[in-house]
Amino acid sequence: MEATTEVGKLYVEVDQSVCQGHALCHRALPEIFLSHPQTGLSYTEDTPVPEGLEDKVIAAALNCPERAIRYWAD
Ligand code: SF4
């Protein structure tokens, strides 16, 4: 019998009610964490994190002083 483990894609989002907009995440990973031109808050696209950037996304989440970044795999 063959055992396989499928790793799901990673998704990430910023809680707009918690984000303070100091842009640590945006400076670290601007292709994932976009900065809203009016509010200055960070946000993400509703798409999976591109392969190879997962560790950087998780690091950005851990480094967010407000704990505003949530990530999950589906
Ligand atoms: S580091 Fe956290 S609080 Fe700061 S802009 Fe990014 S998501 Fe918002």
Written description of the protein model:
With 74 residues, this protein is an alpha+beta fold. The chain has a single domain (15-73), classed as Alpha-Beta Plaits. It is built from two helices and four strands. The chain has a two-stranded antiparallel ribbon with strand order 1-4. It has a two-stranded antiparallel sheet with strand order 2-3. Bound molecules: iron/sulfur cluster. Iron/sulfur cluster (SF4) binds at residues 14, 19-25, 33, 42, 64, 66, 68-69. The site of iron/sulfur cluster (SF4) has 14 residues, from helix 1.
Question: Characteristics of this structure?
Answer:
Alpha-Beta Plaits; two-stranded antiparallel sheet; 4 strands; about 70 residues; about 20% strand; binds iron/sulfur cluster; single chain; 2 helices; alpha+beta
Topology:
Elements (H helix, E strand, L loop, with lengths): L9 E5 L9 H5 L5 E2 L6 E2 L10 H10 L5 E5 L1
Antiparallel strand pairs: 1-4, 2-3
This protein binds iron/sulfur cluster.
Which residue ranges are poorly predicted, with pLDDT under 50 across at least 5 consecutive positions?
none
What is the tally of beta strands? 4
Give me the CATH fold name: Alpha-Beta Plaits
Question: First CA to last CA: what distance?
Answer: 25 Å
Write out the strand line-up for the largest beta sheet, numbering strands in chain order.
Answer: 1-4
Small molecules (ligands, ions, cofactors) in the structure? iron/sulfur cluster
Secondary structural class: alpha+beta
User: What amount of the residues lies in strands?
Assistant: 15-25%
